[in-house]
Known about the structure:
- The strands form three sheets. This protein has a five-stranded antiparallel beta sheet with strand order 8-4-10-11-12. The chain has a four-stranded antiparallel beta sheet with strand order 7-6-5-9. A three-stranded antiparallel beta sheet has the order 1-2-3, with no helix packed on it.
- The radius of gyration is 16 Å and the shape is globular.
- Helix 2 (about 50-60) crosses helix 4.
- A hairpin with a 5-residue loop joins strand 10 (about 130-135) and strand 11 (about 145-150).
- The chain has helices at about 30-35, 50-60, 115-120, 120-125, and strands at about 1-5, 5-15, 20-25, 45-50, 70-75, 75-85, 90-95, 100-105, 110-115, 130-135, 145-150, 155-160.
- By secondary structure, the chain is an alpha+beta fold.
- It has one domain: Proliferating Cell Nuclear Antigen (Box).
- InterPro entries: DNA_clamp_sf, Pr_cel_nuc_antig, Pr_cel_nuc_antig_C.
- One of its GO terms (molecular function) is DNA binding.
- Keywords: Membrane, Transmembrane, Transmembrane helix.
- This is Proliferating cell nuclear antigen family protein.
Amino acid sequence: MGYDEDVMFIRVIKSNGTISNFKVPEVCVDIKEKYEISENDEYQCEVLMPSNLLSDICNELKSYKDLNLKIQVNKNNLLFKIDDSIINADIVLENKKTKEFYLICKKNFSIEFKNKYFLKINNIVKKINIKECFLQMNEKYPLIIIFSICSVSSFQFYLAPILE
């Protein structure tokens, strides 16, 4: 991995000898500094899931790209919800019932995002062969998604919530 000005470069060397190179532009200011997130801050929810599960969620929500996405969390479920005047959609992941999905929730909460920005996650998952992702959520901070590229490489995606 490398970083030059506002572009991140990722090189993945696979065991079969192929090399994949990716150039990912930085899309916003350093969100850690903007929200004053420190390494000691505790997140109310942590989720580990396979990236294909996150991709499936994005695919189901893509027809609602112009609406807001609400994520509701409790110790048993992670709910992705879209409310429209015509159609309501929700996707529920159940802790210990959804395959390869692990949820640790310290407090029930709800957080809202622009769905069109959340859907950008799917582009990352599809273009860079990512196996699993780790989500950290807190009602006061941006959503952090840590993508594991291999056992020693990862990168983070930040998504700022809608603030009232």
